[in-house]
Amino acid sequence: MDLTFTEALSSEDIKFFRGYSLKQSNTFKIGGATPLAIFPKNKEEAVFVIRGLIEQGIPYLTLGNGSNVLIADDGTEKTIVFTSELTQITAHEEESYVYLTADSGVKLTSLAKAAADQSLTGLEFAYGIPGTVGGAVMMNAGAYGGEISDVVTETLYVDETGDIQICRGNAHQFGYRRSIFTDKDFIAASVFRLKKGNQEEIEQKMADYMNRRREKQPLEYPSAGSVFKRPEGHFAGALIEECGLKGCRIGGAMVSEKHAGFIVNAGNATCRDVRELIAKIQKTVKERFGVTLEPEIRFIDS
Fold first, then answer.
1. Taking Cα atoms as reference points, which of 106, 113, 68 lies closest to residue 209?
2. In the chain, ranges of CATH 3.30.43.10 domains
3. How far apart are CA 275 and CA 83, in angstroms?
4. Of 2 and 256, the one with more pLDDT
5. Percent of the chain, pLDDT > 90?
6. Among residues 73, 130, 138, 294, which is most buried (max CB within 10 A)?
7. What is the mean pLDDT of residues 279-291?
8. How many Cβ atoms sit within 10 Å of the Cβ of residue 93?
9. This model's pTM is above 0.85
10. Chain mean position to CA 206
11. What is the 3 state secondary structure string of 128-148?
12. What is the rounded CA–CA span in Å between residue 295 and residue 278?
């Protein structure tokens, strides 16, 4: 790691750690270390950091809650910029809509709760999704018939040259679990267009979605959420279950007995365990149904 860059971080009083274990910073509780982890305390500081990394030619990745990633057992050589301290939410009203601007590190559950507190409807589906705004916009997160693409109007980001840009409307190129930001650029904040609604009805819907998650998803185990994208005309979990793979285990990685679409860390699982289990599931489903399962989770390695 370039000492001049870490010296610059120190001079700006930006929090960073060398040799930082990533196992503690993702929901799978798996993975090695990064040589440098940086924790900007606001958007402005984050932009400064990202520009510095780009100017120095230092490969980097951004992480929020680490809820949809699988990190290699030997970690990554890339610098990791965490957005966990970028948590500002502001609101303004135009005509019949209220617009919430949320930093990329805001947790979706916190954003949905903030909307409900203001009697704003449109984000109920996001309540309980264990991710942050940045990751949700990057992969067009969704649940229960709702998607981020339904409510996002603008995104402030830093492009690969270090310039600040604004992406509007269709330029996001949202699709199923993807957007123009997939695997590139740094998302600083996004704007959500919401409507006024009945607060009691909004909170009831959120509570219903949360209860469904608790009943159907293995929230008691570390995981990265749903492992596979939904194949056209099918449901990944149903295909896996019909193959008799519920409870199938390799090392500490196990197909959830509650929901076959999840692989859980049942005890000291490694990245290798999970990858081998993913490969076994893909092979079994392909042989029986002729369906190719595409992973939804993001793999982080060297």
1. 113
2. 3-82
3. 27
4. 256
5. 94
6. 138
7. 98
8. 10
9. yes
10. 20
11. CCCCEHHHHHHHCCEECCEEH
12. 8
> For residue 19, with 0-12 CB atoms within 10 Å meaning exposed, 13-18 middle and 19 or more buried, which class applies?
exposed
Q: Which amino acid is located at 87 in the chain?
A: T
Q: What share of the chain is helix, strand, coil (3-state, %, to 5)?
A: 30, 30, 40
Does the domain at 89-207 match CATH 3.40.50.2300? Answer given as: no
H-assigned helices in the chain: 3-11, 43-56, 108-117, 133-139, 199-216, 236-242, 271-289
DSSP line for 83-96: -TT---EEEEEETT
- Rg (the chain; Cα; Å): 20
CATH annotation of 218-300: 3.90.78.10
Check the CA dihedral 48-34-179-131 and report its sign. Answer: negative
The predicted pLDDT at position 185 comes to 74
CATH topology of domain 3-82: 3.30.43
Tokens 């910073």 appear where?
A: 25
Q: What is the amino acid identity at position 190?
A: S
Q: Angle, to 10 degrees, between the axis of helix 108-117 and the axis of helix 199-216?
A: 150
Q: Which residue ranges does the chain devote to CATH 3.90.78.10? A: 218-300
> Which residue numbers are catalytic?
177, 226, 296
- Supply 262's token pair: 């999840």
List the one residue out of 153, 48, 141, 149 whose CA is nearest residue 92.
Answer: 153
